[in-house]
Amino acid sequence: MPGTEPELIRLNKYIASSGYCSRREADTLIENGKVMINGEAAIQGSKVKLGDIVEVNGTRVTPEDDMVYIAFNKPLGVTCTTDRRDPSNIIDFIGYEERIFPVGRLDKNSSGLILLTNDGSIVNKLLRAENAHEKEYVVTVNRPFDNNFITQMESGVPVLGQLTLPCKLKQVNGKTFTIILHQGLNRQIRRMCEYLGYKVTKLKRIRFMNIRLGNLESGKWRYLTASEKKELLKDI
């Protein structure tokens, strides 16, 4: 329920549920100063909440059965906001039984893959441009383009006061291309196309890092597989 206090979990239980060790062993590690919570040494009896970063001997631990990672095929018209006052908000559309939030956003007039999670500690890390996380889109514009358009898009164009980073385009047909970005400026693809005199008529994200949209139907979601989660989180 909105406005409720986050659930607190005893630290030894949190560590044990990650599979790292038993509760008794966790107590010993805490007593010996081997456990950190958000960068500070933990003490016996500590409790943690969703989004806290717990490290044991320098390794982050996370209770496997507490973390939710979802791939969602966002339809047009759904807004990537957790604000329940917005009737088109993504949270009410999905209707998941636990509190989750989107990783980044797709604008209301775009569709495709977006990740949602209750793991607050990974969101900003996944979105950092310096991590060079790839995002792939299929884009259709309002008129045919040529090789010069591809070259300019790949080299970078001025958007919001800066030159976009190099990217990779591949032509699908006369008006459609795929594009792989390593950054996520506001309405970046639309602004890039507009700068070159084109208007985006359709934009769909088909991949975020190692997660692919595949044949997931519009408006449907699925849990990430174990291998997808392992690859997604390996550098977090």
Structure characterization notes:
The chain is an alpha+beta fold and 236 residues long. The chain is 22% helix and 28% strand. It has helices at residues 11-17, 23-31, 90-94, 123-127, 147-155, 188-195, 226-233; strands at 9-10, 35-37, 40-41, 47-48, 54-56, 59-61, 69-74, 101-102, 111-117, 135-141, 158-159, 162-163, 168-171, 176-181, 200-208, 211-212, 221-223. Strands 7, 8, 9, 10, 13, 14, 15, 16 and 17 form a 9-stranded mixed sheet that branches. A 4-stranded antiparallel sheet has the order 3-2-5-6. It has a two-stranded antiparallel ribbon with strand order 1-4. A hairpin with a 2-residue loop joins strand 11 and strand 12. Helix 1 (11-17) packs across helix 2. It starts with 8 loop residues before the first strand and ends with a helix.
Q: What is the N-to-C succession of helices and strands?
A: EHHEEEEEEHEEHEHEEEEHEEEH
Query: Can you summarize the main beta sheet?
Result: 9 strands, mixed
Fraction of residues in β-strands: 25-35%
Number of strands: 17
Which residues form runs of ≥5 with pLDDT under 50? none
How many independent structural domains? 3
Shape: elongated
What structural class do helix, strand and pairing data support? alpha+beta
Helix percentage range: 10-25%
* CATH homologous superfamily title of the largest domain: Pseudouridine synthase I, catalytic domain, N-terminal subdomain
